[in-house]
Amino acid sequence: MNKTCTKCGVSQSIDGFHKDKTRKDGIFPQCKVCRQTYRDSERGKILHRANVIRNQKTPKGRVRVAKSQKRYQQSIKGAAMYRSAARRHLERKRHLDAAFTIEMEHQVYKRFQDKCFACNETDNLQIDHHYPLSSGYSLTLDNAVLLCRSCNASKGSRHPDKFYTPGQLNILLELLL
User: Fold this and answer.
1) Would you say 90 and 96 are in contact if contact means Cβ atoms under 8 Å apart?
2) What is the per-residue pLDDT across 132-174, written as a single tens digit (0 to 9) for each?
3) Are 73 and 79 in contact (CB under 8 A)?
4) CATH code for the domain defined by 100-176
5) What are the distances in angstroms from CA 129 to CA 83, 103, 161, 163?
6) pLDDT tens figures, 95-131
7) What is each CA distance from 105 to 34, 78, 153, in whole angstroms?
8) Cα gap 7→173, rounded to integer Å
9) Which of 27, 137, 151, 167 could form a disulfide with 131 if both were Cys (CB 3.0 to 4.6 A apart)?
10) Percent of the chain whose pLDDT exceeds 90
C-alpha cells in the first residue's frame, strides 16, 4: 500500500511514514525524511522542546509551562490575543457573531483618543459594549466604547441611557455612527 507525502509529494510505501494513532488512516501525513528535516530545523527544535516540557507529568514541568504561558499573557501581543479569545468565547456562548478583531480594537482606541469616554482617564482602559452583551448585542465597531475599569464596572450591563448623561449620549451616538 502506498501513500503520498503532503510535504514533498512523493508516493512511497507505508514503511516510509511514521505511525500516528490520532489520524484516521493511522499514518502521519509527511514521510519520515520530510519529518526529520522539519525536526532538524530551528522551529522544529523549539516546538519539540516545548512539547517535551508540556508533556512532563512532574510538577516542575507543569510549573515551567505555567510560567511560560504567564509571560506570554503579560506581553502586549499575548494580552491582546487573550482578550480577543475571551470576547469570542462569551459571544459564542450567547450564539452571537464574534468578529471583533485586534485591528478593530485599535480603531476604537483611536476613535476615543486613548481616553475613557466617561471620565477622560488614560489608565486601565477597556472596551465596553455600548448596548450590553446580556441584552444580545455583540461587540462591533458601532457598539464599542472605550471606558476605564472603574467606569466600565459602574456601568455594568446597564443600558446606555441609564448610565450616560443626555449630553454624553448625544456625543457618543455621533462617534459611533
Assistant:
1) no
2) 888 888 888 888 899 999 999 999 889 888 988 899 889 988 8
3) yes
4) 1.10.30
5) 14, 17, 13, 13
6) 777 677 888 888 999 999 999 998 999 988 988 888 8
7) 40, 14, 19
8) 53
9) 137
10) 19
pLDDT of 92 higher than 70: yes
Domain ranges of the chain: 1-40, 100-176
As a dihedral over the C-alpha atoms of residue 21, residue 24, residue 27, residue 28, rounded to 10 degrees, the angle is -90
CA 150 to chain centre: 24
pTM: 0.56
